[in-house]
Amino acid sequence: GRHLGHNSELSKLPSTIDSLGVTSVPLNQWPDDVDLEALVNDMNSSFESLYSTCSSVQSESVPLLQHNGQHSPTSPKQRLRRSQPMHILAVRRLQEEEQQLRTSSLPAIPNPFPELSGSPVLSPGSLPPCQPSGTYIINIFSEDGMGKVVEIPADMTARDLCQLLVYKSHCVDDNSWALVEHHPLLGLERCLEDHELVVQVQASMTSEGRFLFRKNYAKYEFFRNPLNFFPEHMVAWCQETNGAIPPSQLLQNFLNSSSCPEIQGFLYVKEMGRKSWKKLYVFLRRSGLYFSTKGTSKEPRHLQLLADLEDSNVFTVTTGKKLHSAPTDYEFCIKPNKRTELKELRMLCTEDEQSRTSWMTAFRLFKYGIVLYQNYKIPQQRKTLSHFSTPVRSVSENSLVAMDFSGRIGRVIDNPLEAQSAAMEEGYAWRKRSQRMNILGSPSPLHPCLLSSVIHRTQLWFHGRITREESHRMIHQQGQVDGLFLLRDSQSNPKAFVLTLCHHQKIKHFQILPCEEDGQIFFSLDDGSTKFTDLIQLVEFYQLNRGVLPCKLKHPCTLVAL
């Protein structure tokens, strides 16, 4: 035997021997004289017993272990060569084939932004991570506080869920329904974009957050009226030239990711962790929201970042003055896409409603770009839910025209004065029809004279005895677009009604008074110049003609019970 010194190589022997099933002794307890040859023989015998078991199993199959591209020898001692690495080529080959199969099974996906990556097709490495699978339970609430539990797949978008709720609630699918993320304790809410995954949004919400199902006519109003949406002084280029964007190119510049438009102007900014507000000159760009530390300067050394667009969303603040002591009622908030506390929110405030709408819309345009336009332009891109189909019965303003059927064939009345005259004649004709029906005999349960006082209560635009403040809140929530309207009972006159109408983001009220003529009750909002037998006829008339109103009635303010 040889006397072995305590060196670093021998210190690895105990763990190696343990793994081979050979009894080991701690190094500090070994005797001075060790029979090295006997130790090696014991290790070889352990290897032989191990490989003899493996060879008996693999005798009928192709050997997996190869050395230098050749089959392993049959001798156990020749099979073990400690000085040479052993490559398991078969396992590697299986892994490579599996990776190739996974790659080849993916279809060629066109790259929507080839100028960014330089490739017209998305490669597997550039694809986003796999979305969660399975089904999830979502609670949806209506305006009256009632809820509905819906089980949805993980990849269902907000538009798909709205279509499902429209079908289940028997609503009119006019592409104006929206899913609203609502945080009652924070006083925040926002409409989900049509392409957002509902399950992912729910994962970022706190326990008090909830989803609301309601109308939102202003969701894509910018695409309908891009020239009149942003005031000229708010839109400029990012360059120091301060050049204005031509109105005809406004929409293209917002959607083109290579252009550099910006929204600029004074905003009230709430200091983090305090209740005080500062009036700052703010710039909204694709890279984020900045404010100038020196007046209205755009120099980079004077700009500081307020919020990032990529990982944030913009919310409307519903309790700004009460909760945050906001200087005006037109507050909005930039909230990170995570569960955040009140002190982490970036609170902002504008002077009027139009400015707030412009800032919030610009935030969405800079963040989503062309995707937002696709959501507006191609509603049929949504996934078809195979087990149902929803009828589209929306009525656009362009399909409503004044017609004259006094002759043999009908004709469209282009002259507004002639259209108003024809409407007045039609009102007199309704009166004559009602008088003829009175002469025929006693009224039946379906007689128009009895129905005229209650038939309007079946309409979606009639909301009964709600207050003026409640009507304002409903108009605000559903978009404040021109022509958004509702009818309600008058609080001052129990026999009268009130038409609440939105025009140029301002809410106006028009009283509808009853008037009696020849024993018949009529309704009018222009002091009897134009009379109607019931409120349904009044609404239909002003959907076709503006009359004394600032605009036609276009969008009924609707509530739905889930």
UniProtKB/TrEMBL annotation:
Q: Which Pfam families match?
A: BPS, PH, RA_2, SH2
Q: Give GO MF terms, alphabetically.
A: insulin receptor binding
Which InterPro entries does its entry note?
BPS-dom, GRB/APBB1IP, Grb10_SH2, PH-like_dom_sf, PH_APBB1IP, PH_domain, RA_dom, SH2
Name its cellular compartments.
Cytoplasm
Primary location group: cytoplasm
The terms describing its cellular component in GO are: cytoplasm
- Domain (Ras-associating) ranges: 134-218
In the record, biological process GO terms are: insulin receptor signaling pathway; negative regulation of insulin receptor signaling pathway; negative regulation of Wnt signaling pathway
- The record places domain PH at 260-368
Instruction: List UniProt keywords, sorted A-Z.
Output: Cytoplasm, Phosphoprotein, SH2 domain
Domain (SH2): give its ranges: 461-557
Family note? Belongs to the GRB7/10/14 family.
PANTHER family found in the cross-reference section: GROWTH FACTOR RECEPTOR-BOUND PROTEIN, GROWTH FACTOR RECEPTOR-BOUND PROTEIN 10
What's this protein's name? Growth factor receptor bound protein 10
